[in-house]
Design goal:
41% of the residues lie in helices and 21% in strands. With 101 residues, the chain is of the alpha+beta class. The chain has a single domain, classed as GIY-YIG endonuclease (3-Layer(aba) Sandwich). It has a 3-stranded antiparallel β-sheet, sandwiched between helices. A hairpin with a 6-residue loop joins β1 and β2. The radius of gyration is 13 Å and the shape is globular.
């Protein structure tokens, strides 16, 4: 059986930077970003900790393909994608606490 995956978009407090990532464990990975576990990472350097978008996939391969598609797109396309599901750009961290392990 293939393991599923997630694509997610993080931003900073003022929404000036967007970061697109992929993971097999959404809650764990976002926790790592928020706690700046990887101190020299792009997200730690620019204080990118706010989860504003995520999508789930049945396979990690599908999630990786979607990540590549999103990264190749413009910032405007990413903003529109976020605003369809999260028009106020709320931090979705609390929302995923009870649904993901």
């Amino acid at each position: 059986m293939k393991k599923g995956g997630y694509v997610y978009i993080l931003t900073n407090e003022h929404h000036t930077v967007l970061y697109v990532g992929v993971t097999a464990s959404l809650k764990k990975r976002i926790h790592e970003h928020r706690d700046k576990l990887h101190t020299n990472s792009f997200t730690a350097k620019y204080n990118i900790t706010k989860l504003v978008y995520f999508e789930g996939f049945h396979s990690i391969e599908d999630a990786i393909a979607r990540e590549k598609q999103l990264k190749a797109g413009s910032r405007k396309k990413k903003e529109l994608l976020i605003e369809v599901k999260n028009d106020k750009w709320n931090d979705l961290w609390e929302e995923i606490q009870d649904f993901f392990d």
